[in-house]
Amino acid sequence: MPCTILAEDLSQLIELSLKNQLIESTNYSVKSLETKYKSVQNSYKPKITIGTSFSNTNQETMTTPTNSLVSYANINYTLYDGGAKYNRYKSFQEDIKSSKENLNSLKNKISLEIINYYFLYQSLISSKEAKKQEINTLEAQQIRLNKFLEAGTTTNDEVDKITSRVQNAKVILNEIELNIQTILHNLEYITAKTVTITKGSIIKEFNLKSNRLRADIKAIEFEINKLLEEAKIEKSSNYPIVSLDNTFYNYNMSYDNKSYENNIDSQNIFKLNLSWKIFDFETTKNSYKSAYLKYKSLKSKYDYEKNKASVDLKLSIKAYDIAKLKINSANLALKAANSTYDTIENKYQNGLVENVAYLEALSEKYSAISSLKKAQYDLEIKKANIIYHSGKDLWEFIK
Predict the structure, then answer these.
(1) 236 DSSP 8-state letter
(2) What is the tens place of the pLDDT at every residue in 161-176?
(3) Residues near 94 by Cβ (< 8 Å), separated by ≥ 6?
(4) Cβ(337)–Cβ(367) below 8 Å
(5) CA distances from 174 to 167, 170, 394 (A)
(6) Mean local confidence (pLDDT), 134-154
(7) Mean of the per-residue pLDDT values for the chain?
(8) Res. 133: pLDDT tops 70
(9) At a CB cut-off of 8 Å and minimum separation 6, what does 75 contact?
(10) N or C: which terminal CB in the chain sees fewer CB atoms within 10 Å?
């Protein structure tokens, strides 16, 4: 069962999310690849093998004694394999780099998701507070009109209008509450903990001139290099293979016929081996071509994704500029709504306007309050989007 963590700010939420099972799983995959690379490196080192064998025959010959015990020690080393060894090393190195960039990309994507949830939550909390204030004001007016109705100075339809507004506001309040709980459940899913959220976190300012490739694009770049090295491995089959082999034997022969016995009880055999595949019906050629086409395919995808990332950055910058304009607009709208409400509320209290005009002014006031808060929190999200598309680590910009 998830345990409860109280009062998490944005940096703490991201810290929790970057320790979840998905990150842990990806991290294990990177470590597995690094360990595999070490294994491949060791496989190219000289191999030493020891062994022994015992044999018994019922038909002894000069070369086959009745009983024999042969022990041996062998050392083998490949001097040259057409360059496949170094291509394989390079392939693993690029694969490890790609895996690490994919891990970093996953961290950034999760961080961006947490940031969106955090500021959307704050926006909903502001809307909830504004709606509760609106309901309190409406209920106070509802009580006031009910008293006027009892005194016969107003009509049922006037009371019904404001009652309808109260009920509608409460429905909206419940919808806001549902959205808040949904965000909290989503955060619990990501962090594996039940959290409550505090206010106060913001995204730091950033420098647009220090852009770099996003981690997911860099991962593709390293994957391209890996595929090119794999194509070279296929091509290396066209070159000769040179290896050294040395085996030391120790013989213990037991002959029934003593005339078969010899003085050799040990023997060392040294070999320098050369093999060269000169014709294979274009098997190697087609294998290389297939691997190279995979490289070309991914390179085309890389060019596409790189261009798309550049466009995404430009769009995120444009969205950020628009978000700043929305804040200015929301401030003006709130100022106008407050002024209008104060005027109409005064006239309404003196019976100079109907409650329809008053209710509209009240609704516009609290709607403007919510819109301003929403615009302010949306600006933080737009900042995060720019940082993400700029290839920077989001968790470094939390304040």
Answers:
(1) G
(2) 888 888 999 999 999 9
(3) 222, 223, 225, 226, 229
(4) yes
(5) 11, 6, 33
(6) 82
(7) 90
(8) yes
(9) 46, 47, 48, 49, 244, 245, 246, 247
(10) N
Sequence-ordered alpha helix ranges (H) in 44-155: 84-151
Which amino acid, 21? Answer: Q
Is residue 94 over pLDDT 80?
yes
What's the one-letter identity of residue 18? L
Mean pLDDT confidence for 286-298 = 94
Q: Determine the pLDDT at residue 78.
A: 94
Task: Find the length of the chain.
Answer: 399
pLDDT in tens, 232-282: 999 998 999 999 999 999 988 888 777 777 778 899 999 999 999 888 898
Specify the 3-state DSSP secondary structure of 309.
Answer: helix
What percentage of the chain carries pLDDT values higher than 90? Answer: 61
β pairing state of 194-197 and 4-8: parallel
- Any residues with CB less than 8 A from the CB of 38 and at least 6 apart, and which? none
Q: Would you state the structure tokens that stand for residue 283, as one six-digit string? A: 């098997």
Q: Are 104 and 18 in contact (CB under 8 A)?
A: no
Whole-model pTM: value is: 0.85
Measured in Å, how far apart are the chain's first and last C-alpha atoms? 31
Distances (CA, A) of 399 to 23, 118, 125, 193, 392: 23, 13, 20, 22, 15
For residue 187, give the nearest of 55, 2, 350 by alpha carbon: 2
The two most distant CA atoms of the chain are separated, in Å, by 140
Q: What string of DSSP letters covers 153-217? A: SS-HHHHHHHHHHHHHHHHHHHHHHHHHHHHHHHHHHHHSSEEEE-S---BPP--GGG----HHH
pLDDT at 40 over 50: yes
Strands 67-80 and 266-275: unpaired
Distance from C-alpha of 113 to C-alpha of 18, rounded to nearest angstrom = 12
Q: Which two tokens stand for residue 376?
A: 């302010």
Report the alpha-carbon distance of residue 387 to residue 207 in Å, rounded.
9
What is the C-alpha to C-alpha distance for residues 330 and 375, in angstroms, rounded to an integer? 7
Give me 275's structure tokens: 């093999």
Is the pLDDT at 290 greater than 50? The verdict is yes
Q: Distance between CA atoms of 118 and 180, rounded to whole angstroms? A: 10
In angstroms, rounded to a whole number, what is the distance separating the alpha carbons of residues 35 and 29? 10
